[in-house]
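Sharing a chain and its predicted structure for anyone who wants a worked example. Both blocks are below, sequence first, tokens second.
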Amino acid sequence: MKRALLFFSSFVAVAIVIYAMAIIPNFTAFKTLFQNAEGMSEGSEYVANTYSLVDLTRFIGNKPEHVSLVSMSIDRPDSSLYYQENRPRTMGSLGNLILLYAYAQAVESSQLDPNEELGLEEISKFRLPLISQNAHDGAIERLVTEESPSFTLEDAVHAMVEFNDLVLADFLWAKLGITALETGLEQLRDSLDLKVTELPLPNAALYMAIAEPASYVPVFSPKQDSIRIDSTQRALFHSKALEDFYQKTADPEWFASVQAAFKANRINQNFMQERDALALFPQTTASELAQIMRYLLLDDRLEKELQAHILNALGWPNGSSTVARSFESYYAHYDSRMGLLSGVDFGTSIYTGERRIQVVLFDELPVAFWHHMSANHMQEDFQQRLIWDPALFQTTKIAL
């Protein structure tokens, strides 16, 4: 009996030690998983659609509320695909196209020096802990080494696109200033007759706002379609979020307290609430993004020097052996955040020489489905193969 009790006591002690070693260092992750048990099962019935790209096309065809797509052939316009192209969607990092346009203008007018030396402290001024942390870490690893702790503004802009780094995007937003960005957007609106695309705002401003939604929206119910179409409510939300961003980041102590709160509780919302809150972010449509891409990269009305700056920033995939097997050239920008997977790209098939500009927007996705799809960058694979794989293109066309 004593031996049995001794064995049981030893077993319990070892189990407690193992449990403590596993749980305590990862308590934040454990707590997050526990708080999101419901969200992690949301949409589990659709997870089978992430097993292959053919299965994914079925999801796209059956769920128009979640997907918009434009695959615009430059050389054979009749073979273009359009699906839910005019439906308003969260713009996310694809709004960086407007930042790149304003950046190219500032460089060409000598208002900004692309060779300006920058340091880590300067570009991390608006960093919020636990918001797209892995993307930021990847960008910093690319930019900063022991031998070379500084880097150029141009390097930072390219890393912003390649890694979808929200911190670098906020730095560039502040560097350009709201006046330059508003001017750039107005020029695009005038040239392309844009009706839906809104001004991109700092990511820090938006995430600080949704961390305390009651302060920004009287009734926080983004699931209602009105949040997408009520321009007055959206404008008020954006205006207040930007005003608070200016105030909090101008006061080092205040912003430090905000960062501490994010480090402890992130945005203090579960996965489904975070996904729903993205409906408050600046929006656009697949059709308008495709028009912007075509104008910025190919339109004769835009100076070639400006187009070259933008192409250089979007050209990070070139040089990859995977891309080289299927493309003569490929330019892209992708975004991934809770419930949202999106991308813009411009590629030339190595097999046919056909050029396509594409926009794919997966929006308000069920959480479980989003986790499975985002884990292997499935939307990027889908978007790339839509250019060079005629079988997938035909399957997608039939599904739509």
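Comments welcome. Residues 2-23 form the longest helix (22 residues).
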